[in-house]
Amino acid sequence: MKAEWVDLQINGYGGVDFNAPGLTVEQVIAVTERLETDGTMGYLPTIVTGNPDVAVETLRVIAEARKRSARCERNILGIHLEGPFISPELGAVGTHPIEWVAKPSLELFARYQEACGGLVKLITVAAEIPGMPAFVSALSAQGVAVSLGHQMAATPEEIAPCIEAGAKAFTHLGNGLPNMIPRHKNILFTALAEDRASVMFIPDGHHLPDTMLKVFTRAVPLRRLIAVSDAQYPAGMPPGEYEVCGAHARLEPNGLLWNPARNCLVGATTPMAAMMTLLQRRIDLTQEECLAIGRDNPRALIGV
């Protein structure tokens, strides 16, 4: 299925890690060209929880790449900050380095936004963190789309104030949460029932089973569904051992990328075009539905 896909979560691609120190303009241009070749015509480089000094330099490099390259200016639609304002608890934190998880800080966010010239269009935060509704309100007032994710056990009572404050989405729903959750009052049911926010999800064949994808597409209106790849830099690389987010990761021959020590996934390696073809086959979507989920809805969320 050929289309101009839009991906709101690209951590790296083709051997280039957006979260490693020393990122260069040339690497950003190379990733953008490679993604376009693989069918992704718009994307958000995603900066995860990490050393703020490294993040600031990375944000500057991405902004500079957009100035130097017409393709980057066209295809890089903004930047996604996935953290550092998330839960530090194992299970919720995923593969993010716990030592760099931070409490909500408008000063730190302003530092990041200044470094990239206001390119941050999407940020993932955890609703359960004290003070989060006020933080969400402040960022929403700046035109930043706030998404809720990497939460330990955010309750409906914690989610609702963040939605009312302006949160617009849930990040990779079904992932970045503990294996054991309350059977009724949990983030899955809360997100699926929340009519005011979009559901982002990773349909790569590893992150979610077909049953979960069917529930998502049956419970959530089409306009609220957004597919993301959550691609990490080993995408497009051979199977083997890698270091992702400062921790050991293993890329299996079937494309599964995981952290054996924490027994958790560490992103994906399936390009958006292949992922959308897989999604269409797995749950019998039409091409028009796939275009909405993988192109139109992502643009709408970030106001492009």
CATH architecture: Alpha-Beta Barrel
- Strand content of the residues, in percent? 15-25%
Instruction: Please name the CATH topology.
Output: TIM Barrel
* CATH superfamily heading: Metal-dependent hydrolases
Helical residue percent band: 25-40%
Structural class: alpha/beta
Largest sheet: 8 strands, parallel
Gyration radius from CA atoms, angstroms: 17 Å
Could you tell me how far the N terminus lies from the C terminus, measured between alpha carbons in angstroms?
A: 23 Å
What does this structure look like?
This protein is an alpha/beta fold and 304 residues long. It has a single domain (5-301), classed as Alpha-Beta Barrel (TIM Barrel). The chain contains ten helices and 14 strands. The chain has helices at 25-37, 52-68, 70-75, 106-115, 132-141, 156-165, 187-193, 210-219, 272-283, 287-301, and strands at 5-10, 12-13, 16-17, 40-48, 79-82, 120-125, 145-148, 169-170, 198-201, 225-227, 240-244, 247-251, 257-259, 264-265. Helix 1 crosses helix 2 (52-68).
What descriptive keywords fit this protein?
single chain; 304 residues; alpha/beta; TIM Barrel; 8-stranded parallel beta sheet; 4-stranded antiparallel beta sheet; 10 helices
